[in-house]
């Protein structure tokens, strides 16, 4: 067996989205004083602050999708529903977020702010579970490859580290958003607490992204599974 690799296009798209998301987050810090002057102030501030987080979720959900596709293909399973499921899930997530924004605009009370934060917390918890599930499946699949398989040890280490980093950063985001939802003093709004917010996003987005990009820095040849033998489920 040759251990499966990410496709060249997959790797480049993932890297591009990472740089885009982190660039957007850094731009918010750089222009936060201008963001404060946006009118109608509150709802547009929520949109500006929430969009990079949604894009971060989509970027890493795409990585989990690639892991799922590799795992399914190597086991000889049909992958047709995975990509359509990815698009449907993301469409539902963005539609729900738009609904939350509309409700905040129409009725900007504290309970709606709590709902907005809990939505992000639930999204982050789902992403953490996704990495534990698909990262764990791929890790166990790779362990069943023969020891002499080319790239086996490197890929085991890569999947294990990336799954751990992503699960931890999404779980940390979930915990912090839940805490912020019910504790006004722990509000993570960048416009009210720029230093606290910078540290928060540094730990849950910027540093994890940098670590993942470093781990996945090698650009492989395109994914080819034609020569793989499907792994037995036993």
Automatic annotation (TrEMBL):
Pfam families registered for this protein in UniProt: THH1_TOM1-3_dom
Positions of the THH1/TOM1/TOM3 domain: 2-231
Top-level taxonomic group: Eukaryota
Topology term for the membrane: Multi-pass membrane protein
TM helices/strands, residue ranges: 54-72, 84-106, 118-140, 161-182, 198-216
InterPro entries attached to this UniProt entry: THH1/TOM1/TOM3 (IPR040226), THH1/TOM1/TOM3_dom (IPR009457)
Coarse class of the protein's main subcellular location: membrane
A cellular component term, taken from the record's GO annotations: vacuolar membrane
Keywords: Membrane, Transmembrane, Transmembrane helix
Location in the cell: Vacuole membrane
Similarity section: Belongs to the plant tobamovirus multiplication TOM1 protein family.
Protein name: THH1/TOM1/TOM3 domain-containing protein
Organism: Aegilops tauschii subsp. strangulata
Upper lineage: Eukaryota, Viridiplantae, Streptophyta, Embryophyta, Tracheophyta
């Amino acid at each position: 067996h040759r251990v499966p690799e990410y496709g060249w296009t997959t790797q480049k798209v993932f890297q591009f989205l990472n740089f885009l998301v982190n660039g957007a987050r850094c731009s918010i810090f750089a222009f936060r004083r201008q963001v404060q002057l946006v009118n109608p102030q509150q709802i547009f501030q929520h949109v500006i602050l929430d969009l990079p987080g949604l894009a971060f979720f989509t970027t890493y959900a795409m990585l989990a999708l690639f892991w799922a596709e590799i795992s399914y293909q190597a086991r000889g399973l049909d992958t047709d529903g995975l990509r359509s499921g990815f698009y449907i899930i993301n469409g539902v997530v963005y539609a729900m977020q738009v609904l939350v924004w509309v409700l905040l605009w129409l009725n900007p009370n504290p309970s709606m702010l709590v709902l907005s934060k809990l939505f992000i917390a639930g999204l982050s918890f789902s992403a953490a579970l996704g990495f534990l599930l698909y990262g764990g499946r791929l890790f166990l699949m790779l362990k069943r490859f023969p020891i002499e398989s080319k790239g086996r040890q490197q890929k085991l280490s890569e999947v294990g580290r990336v799954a751990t980093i992503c699960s931890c950063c999404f779980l940390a985001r979930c915990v912090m958003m839940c805490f912020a939802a019910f504790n006004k003093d722990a509000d993570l709004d960048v416009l009210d607490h720029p230093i606290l917010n910078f540290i928060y996003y540094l730990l849950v987005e910027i540093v994890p992204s940098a670590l993942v990009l470093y781990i996945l820095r090698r650009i492989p040849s395109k994914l080819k599974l034609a020569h793989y033998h499907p792994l037995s489920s036993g």
